[in-house]
Amino acid sequence: MIISAFPGTGKTFASKKFEDIAVDLESSVYQWSDYDFEHVEQRKGKTTEKKILWPRNYFDDILSSNIKFPFVFISSNPVILDMLSVHNVKFITVTPNISDKKDYLDSYIKRGNPEEFVNKISDNFESFIKSLDNNENALCHVKLEHAKHISDIITYL
């Protein structure tokens, strides 16, 4: 099952907690040439040079990971979701409630995301969530309750 989840919903934590059945495909490693493995969260929004193979490299790894793992957590990047849809690859979306905006922004700051990333999410929080929630190509849309994360619901998916 491919799960496109909003930033901060717990993709990385869930993949570590359920490492035998889940993988988190952090899109930055596929997208940016100046990706920094040690400072993933601190580099978000600060990378500059896209890899030539983006987005095909990410799409291909999503497909191969979907064979190996029951749960594949991916970015909510519209380009990727469009590619999945064009190729009839099914996915679900996971989003927080719009009323949890402050909690999510606080968590980005706490985990060390740069100001540029936090501001981009802050300025577009509602529209990003609505876009995922209204994606007609998703099999279903999962709305997280307040203070809940993917690891809290994975057994229900």
The gist of it:
The chain is an alpha/beta fold and 157 residues long. It is 45% helix and 11% strand.
Write a structural description.
With 157 residues, the protein is α/β, with parallel strands linked by helices. It has one domain: Rossmann fold (3-Layer(aba) Sandwich), CATH 3.40.50. It contains eight helices and five strands; from the N terminus they run E-H-E-H-H-H-E-H-E-H-H-E-H. The chain has helices at 11-17, 28-31, 40-43, 56-68, 78-86, 101-110, 115-133, 150-153, and strands spanning 2-5, 22-24, 71-74, 92-95, 141-143. A five-stranded parallel sheet has the order 2-3-1-4-5, with helices on both faces. Helix 6 (101-110) runs antiparallel to helix 7 (115-133). The relative contact order is 0.23.
Task: Map the helices and strands.
Elements: E1 2-5, H1 11-17, E2 22-24, H2 28-31, H3 40-43, H4 56-68, E3 71-74, H5 78-86, E4 92-95, H6 101-110, H7 115-133, E5 141-143, H8 150-153
Parallel strand pairs: 1-3, 1-4, 2-3, 4-5
Helix pairs in contact: 6-7
Number of helices: 8
Number of domains: 1
CATH 2nd-level architecture: 3-Layer(aba) Sandwich
* Gap between N and C termini: 9 Å
* CATH fold group: Rossmann fold
Give the CA-based shape: globular
CATH class: Alpha Beta
> Helix/strand-derived class?
alpha/beta
Major sheet: arrangement of strands: 2-3-1-4-5
The rounded Rg comes to 15 Å
Unreliable segments (pLDDT under 50, ≥5 consecutive)?
none
